[in-house]
Amino acid sequence: MAAERTDPPAVICRAVAKTFAGGTEAVRPLDLRLEPGQTTALVGPSGCGKSTLLRMIAGLEPPTSGSIEIGGAPPAETLRRADLSVAFQDPSLLPWRSVRGNIALALSLARRPADARAIDELIALVGLEGFGDTRPAQLSGGMRQRAAIARALVTEPRLLLLDEPFGAVDELTRQQLAQDLPRLWEARGTTTVLVTHSVTEAVMLSDRILVLSPRPAAIVADIAIDLPRPRAPGDARTDAFAALTDAVHEALSQGMARAEPPLAAQ
Ligand SMILES: Nc1ncnc2c1ncn2[C@@H]1O[C@H](COP(=O)(O)OP(=O)(O)OP(=O)(O)O)[C@@H](O)[C@H]1O
């Protein structure tokens, strides 16, 4: 069983679409295959449907039509087996538990043994050394986000879904996380999906970037990020890095241009 858990899953979306009850079409029928062990970044304009797509993959939002498979199983089953973890921009930490207590809870909910050493290692990895016994209210927004990332990682999920996880994290810590986290999920072979507004961050962290159109989300570009790993902050100053960020910006502009104009302008 243990060997089975270590296999990273492919994520397959078949004609997945979402229209909310009020009539908002968030995601157009979309076909997608995310490769096992790869890190894929979703970038696109605000409100285009990135979080909705991520929430559908997480099994937290049912698609209106189409189907999603994670390593051959539906998302709800993957979530139930704790093979999947999500870290959102707005971390939902339990206020009465310390950082360590919140991370430990994820292990106990996943019916995994408490592992004080693994918890402490993760606390250090996200730069929260010395704050293990602190409650969320005593942390900054960025520190809470980092605690939520540690909580998402502690169960060693095969699929890791990150929705703007560094939104409130300061620039230096972001750079540190952008170096340390990929090392961890590469070592574990985790399949990772990252939603981010930062094109630089997307290029730094991912193997592939999917550029989405304005709502309803459709894929306008699929860009392979073939930069060598491990990557360092200095890589962002290379020509290869600049060419990739340019390609993403170009695709974002093309997506905007292709979008229908707002009703008032028609
Ligand atoms: N539960 C919901 N009910 C109704 N509409 C929703 C719901 N959740 C999201 N939407 C709408 O769906 C669209 C896509 O939202 P979503 O949060 O997926 O976008 P996003 O690309 O993640 O945005 P951002 O980058 O600003 O976080 C938006 O128009 C949003 O208002």
UniProtKB/TrEMBL annotation:
Location of the ABC transporter domain: 11-239
Keywords, comma-separated and alphabetical: ATP-binding, Nucleotide-binding, Transport
Pfam families: ABC_tran
GO terms of molecular function: ATP binding; ATP hydrolysis activity
Family, per entry: Belongs to the ABC transporter superfamily.
Organism: Salipiger marinus
Leader peptide range in chain numbering: none
Protein name: NitT/TauT family transport system ATP-binding protein
